[in-house]
Amino acid sequence: MHIDGEFEGEIHSKNTVIIGKSGVIKGNVYAQKFVVNGKFFGNTESAVVEILPLGCIEGKVITPEFVIERKGIFIGESKIISKDNKQEKSADKGK
To answer: Is the distance from CB of 52 to CB of 69 less than 8 angstroms?
Structure first.
């Protein structure tokens, strides 16, 4: 999913969610991979979170892999979890 406009709400994706340079998301994102090249305000729990140059995240990030490229902006709280932890959490939810 690629977003170049404005979106407010919650996104659940088993694939990659990309915010383009002119994109803005306000809400929560749950995805396999979350790439921010625009602006994101909210919380994300994704397997991989990547902020590209001039991309901005303001909020809470929970992920086993967090990449902030040069000139990327992050304001908020991050929690790095092990990949095993994430698998255990999702397995517990089904019980």
So the answer is: yes
